[in-house]
Amino acid sequence: MILDRRSTAIVVDSTSDLPDHLATDSNISMVPLTVYFGEEAYLDWTELKPTEFYAKLKAAPELPRTSQPSAGAFLEQYKKLREQYERVYSIHLSGKLSGTVASAEVAAGQIDGVKVVDSQLATGGIALLVDRVLARVDQGTPEEEVDAYIERFLAEKTFFFLPTTLDQLYKGGRIGRASHLVGTLLNIKPVLSIDEGVIDVYKKVRGLRQALELMRDGMIERTAPGAKIFVSLSHAENPPVLEELRALVLGVADRDIEIRLTSVVGSVIGTYVGWGAVALSFIQE
Amino acid sequence: MANSDGVSLTVPQARALLTAGFRALEERKQEINDLNVYPVPDGDTGTNLTLTMRGILDAVGRLPAGLREPELCAAISQAALMGARGNSGVILSQIIRGAMEVLGQAGPVTCEVLARAFRHATETAYRAVRKPVEGTMLTVLREMAEAAAVAPAGGDCAVFMDEVVAAGWKSVERTPSLLKVLADAGVVDAGGYGLVVLVQGARNGRSDWEPAVATHIQQAPVMAARFDQEEAEEESRFTYCTSFLLTGQGLDQALLEEQLSQLGDSLLVVGDQWRLKVHVHTDDPGRVLGLATSLGVLSEMEIDNMKEQTAARLRRLAETSEAAATDPGLTQVVAVVVGEGNKTLFRNLGVDLVVDGGQSMNPSAEDLLRAVNRAAAPSVVILPNNSNVIMTAEQTIELAEKEVLVVPTRSIQAGLTAAVSYDRRLSGADNAREMQVAMESVLTAEVTQAVRDSLVDGVQIRAEDFIGLVGDRVVVASRDLEAVVEEVAARLVGQDREILTLLVGDDANAPRVTAMVDRLRALHPTLEIEVHEGGQPFYPVLLSAE
Lengths: 285, 546
Hints:
Order of helices and strands of chain A: EEHEEEHEHEHEHEHEHEEHEHEHE
Number of helices of chain A: 10
Largest sheet of chain A: 6 strands, mixed
Helix content of chain A: 25-40%
Low-confidence stretches of chain B: 207-235, 309-325
Oligomer: heterodimer
Largest interface: A-B, 16 and 22 residues
Mean pLDDT of chain A: 94
CATH class of the largest domain in chain A: Alpha Beta
Structural class of chain A: alpha/beta
Distance between the termini of chain A: 23 Å
Shape of chain B: globular
Radius of gyration of chain B: 24 Å
Number of strands of chain B: 16
Shape of chain A: globular
Strand order of the largest sheet of chain B: 13-12-9-16-14-15
Number of helices of chain B: 22
Radius of gyration of chain A: 18 Å
CATH topology of the largest domain in chain A: Rossmann fold
Helix content of chain B: 40-55%
CATH topology of the largest domain in chain B: Serine Threonine Protein Phosphatase 5, Tetratricopeptide repeat
Number of domains of chain B: 4
Number of domains of chain A: 2
CATH class of the largest domain in chain B: Mainly Alpha
């Protein structure tokens, strides 16, 4: 079948941290995770926007906890969407970082027409995949082509991020293959990646500027000269560093770079990467 | 065995010659150290040459007496290669290698053979140095070889060698006219000087090919003990092998040697008035340590029960399983580091093979090779972290059976920056490339205290001045430590640097550096300033800017 705006809906969870134009798109709906400060529970994005979240994070005596949506929450959403749409693509945070995609799969097993995609990514990386799928839906694209594209995206995308702390990834059990960096005495700025859904170390340097340059150089290394590159940039409320990263990315001369979106890291991912983190996701078309 | 024209080289003769050369070097070691032009307490050419010879002697001492020339000479070459310390030691090892290649094949040793040995030694040594500099031990060697080529070869080898040695001393005297740094400092080249001391010593020890050991027993009880017993190491009657590093001021090597010789055997006391490396087999390590503690500060203590073979085996097994427990990946790093705090910083970056080093304590190729062999990964990257260790590190490339790559870090700070980019999952070549890039991105500086007056890089230095070096250049000298640190920091953080790192030493002046960190922060408000306890001697602070 041909996927287009009449036939197809997209579901995301709140860790996709969609920018406004995607968050308000009529074909996209979002199921939130929950953030707990002590006993107080907040639905990510719905009840707690990043600005408030980072203010609370700074003031909080202990780190917030997060929890995935229930299968029921997804099922409810799917049922509603299936009344109007023939096909639902449900795109989620890496299954190796969260049980969210597992909840979605349980729900999808109880209704037909829903395809669950483990993005193997987080935040702006998920948003970039959503943007790319939506572009195909906008044009009207055969389902097999969309599926093939998603498969290629998952194989070829890159997600780099620069956390401001490793402690929270470590305490939250999300540190993956970067665990050896915890407790480093020298102030190291590691550029982390998510590879095959797991957090990994791309490269390490000491200065912030150098770390941003590493991210840019990684983009050059992983793409071909002259190629069309779609990019998303994310930041945990850190506009100056985001702009530095943007300038570096746009400064790459021999690539056709299109920054598709800039997003703000929300409370769930922000809990782990810390206030001030930045991320760069890209895919070569 | 000896014919009228020459004699065959035997193991006892080789020992006698090498012992005589070693002894001469050791006697004048401090003199040679003092010739180092660098006005900081790294005067270690004499120490390095002596330790290199010591390594050769130890190896030759273990050789069976009946060994024939080719095997003997090959063994001496190998021992020189393994024992080489510091750049002067590495060059010496190449000189010996060249000479041995001739002596091993030549049959009876005649003046003509010696002349050829000098010539080939010169060729080998020049080849080993990437950018040969005239006015160094290379020049002195070449001019000795030139003298040997024209000296009367028919007669007595003693006369012949006298001419060669005389040419050597003349050459040493000319070194300041060839190398400006020597002239500025008012000294001759330390390596060349040491080389002639060695050759002269060996020549004097040659008399009738008798081992010189016998006639100098009271001067060198250690040497006598070592060479009287074929396998002293294995059959010591003492239980504990005790070794440690003693740091202090005005340490008296001869006195300590005398005192320790009462307590055990296989005694080795090497170093200088600031640091002595001690090794002794004893039944009473407590008394040994007690004695040493009264003289200075102890570190790197190792006490092994030599009789407890089982314990040693268990320890080896434990080490192996420990190494196997963490995946070594494709590449491991060997770093030469001085200072306990600095070692911790390296280990913290995943560098688990740390070799003790630093000024006046340059490791031998063998020390590095041992560390390389402890690595479980197929590739090893060595970070020498000292310009005087780079050549030694490069020697291990050919000595090791696994892939060894050297990233030529010239300071602890550069080494740390390189180690930050270490990734065990990458190949040796990939790691070396990343580390090289990282190393080149860092600016380094150091602050130390001059040991004597001199003029370096146009800066007039008085003894006891604090001097600041940026890269390898002296930029400031003053009695005021804080002013020197400020000046050096200001020069480092010029263009778009983000982090200034201070590694504070264990020097008596180090607390003054720690006390002025807030002042540096006020002077450079946009800079991130990191301070770590490095623990290195002689340098109140090492700095880097990234």
